[in-house]
Structures are given as structure tokens and as C-alpha cells.
Amino acid sequence: MKIFMAGGTGFIGSRLIPAFIRGGHEITLLVRPGEEKGFALSGVRIVEGDPAELGRWQEDLATHEAVVNLAGASIFQRWTKKARREIRQSRISSTRNIAEAVKGSSGRTAHLFNASGVGYYGFSGDASVDEKSPKGNTFLADLAKQWETEAMRATEGGARVVLCRLGIVLGRNGGAFTRIHPLVKLHLGSPWGKGTQWFSWIHEEDCVRILLFLFERTDLKGPVNFTSPFPVTNRELMGFMNEVVGKKPYVPSIPGPLIRLSFGEFSTVFLKGQRAVPGVLQKEGFSFRFPALKEALADLVNTQKQSPVHGRKRRFSSRNTFSL
Known about the structure:
By secondary structure, the protein is α/β, with parallel strands linked by helices. Helix content is 37%, strand content 16%. It has helices at 11-22, 57-61, 81-103, 139-152, 177-185, 204-216, 234-245, 256-263, 268-271, 279-283, 293-306; strands at residues 2-6, 26-31, 44-48, 66-69, 111-117, 128-129, 160-166, 168-170, 198-199, 201-203, 222-226, 232-233, 275-276. The strands form four sheets. The chain has a seven-stranded parallel sheet, sandwiched between helices. The protein has a two-stranded parallel ribbon with strand order 6-13.
């Protein structure tokens, strides 16, 4: 299958592209002018263009059978007015332009896989949420709704649209794990605030496997939660991390006010959460390789210890980091 990817230079894309190539797919990767292009992978065709801007890349996209849209600025930053605008613009404009190109393909582009996030559900407390749950009332929930609305416009051209609602993706080269792991090694792996907030996560390998599963299951469309069936509380998360790394934190917890002072409104991502479960995937019989957090963390920690290239400069940009 010919696959067009936007935002594929982030740490999720860097795992997904090799999997696509192993599956015999042809990959076209959209990169911004001047963006790093020193990929060590053969068989990846590069097209320059900014998905947030109209351009000739849209004509190229229309010749492909499937599109994977991972484009968007990271939410891992203080949410100033400028940052909010960049986060929103990078998603809304890009997805609108991609959906328009899919519509203009006259039915050639049959599948759009569009990244979104479990932030769609807002903060749900202890209540479990799945794909049938309503939208929340937060910045990320409103963003996810607008983002998904733009993606669904591709259905007007007959395309199947899968809304990939990502949980916190735990990976070796990006996302939450690479931020938490160094703190734990420094004995700073304490629960954040009360520690009772829920953490909906997914191992990077299962994230890739889910997308490959959805490529095969052409009968599935609409929202799909990319999360483990076993979300954990923040206290459980930090406890497992300390156990796997073999460290004990110096203090029992990190006060919520200190986190809010450090990160502003973005701190709500750490201090609140949602207990999202993968209802669609469980119903359809998807088999997780890492359903339990302790085993997932052990895999990531052990792989980093064994990797001879750990710490070297990566060939992919970390700009696109999703965990809404």
C-alpha cells in the first residue's frame, strides 16, 4: 500500500515507519523545508512541505491509498497564549489541509488515520471512559474535538477515518518515559500531588501494533483509544518506576502547588487525568504485548541499558510528541 505520512519524524513515527517498510508498504514522508532528513531507512520517499500551509504536497498526497497524520506541536510545554495558539494551529490547519487533499483524491485515498488523544474525555476522576464516553470540558478536550471534526471531513470524499486517541505513549526516545526515568534515577520519583490521578498509557510497541491492526481491519472506523486495558494511578506509576529502576525517592510526594508553579495550566496533565480504556480494541480481540505497566517499564529500562547507541543523537526529530 502507498502510505503518505505527515508528522512522521517524531518518536512515534520513527517506530512506525520501519514497521510499515517491513510490511512491504511504500512510504512518502512529508517534511518541512530544512527539517532533518538524514534517515537511515531506505525506501522512504521525501516530500517537502508544511502541512499547515496549502501546497503541491496535497497533490502528491492524493495519489496515495492511505494517510497517517501525526502532525502537531508538543503539548509538553507551558501553555502560554503563544503556545496554545501554536498547539491548536499546528493541529487544526494541518488536519484541515490533509482532509481536503483526501477529499480531492476522487476516492483514491481510502483511509485516513488521524492522531488525537484521550484528553478528549477531559478529567474523569475515577470513572472509566471509553470511545462511547462524551467529550470533556477542558482545553485539550476542545482541541481534540476540533481536531477530529477536521479529520472527519475526509469522509465527504468517501474515505474511512480512524481517530487514534492516544494515551500517554511510553517510548525509549520520547514522551513521558524519557522525562520520568532521569528523575527516578536521581531519587526524585515521588508521586505528583495526591497521586490518585489516573494515568492512561500505552507502550510504544503496542501503539505501532494497534495501528497495523487497524490497517488490516478495514471495517473499523471512528474513535479508537490507544491505551492499555489497565490504566494506573500516578502513585502506582511512580512506584513501579522506582521498583524497576531500583531507587527510592527522597521525599514522599511532590506538592501539587509546586508543580502548578513550575508548569502553569499544563500541570493539569500531571495532576489530573482520565481513566481511559480501549473499548474498541478489547471488543475486537486485539492482543496487547504489554498490557501491564510494570512489564512495559521493565522492557524500556532494560532496552536502554542494553542499547549501545543509547544517548547518541537520533535521526528523527522529537517535535511531534502526542499524549493528550
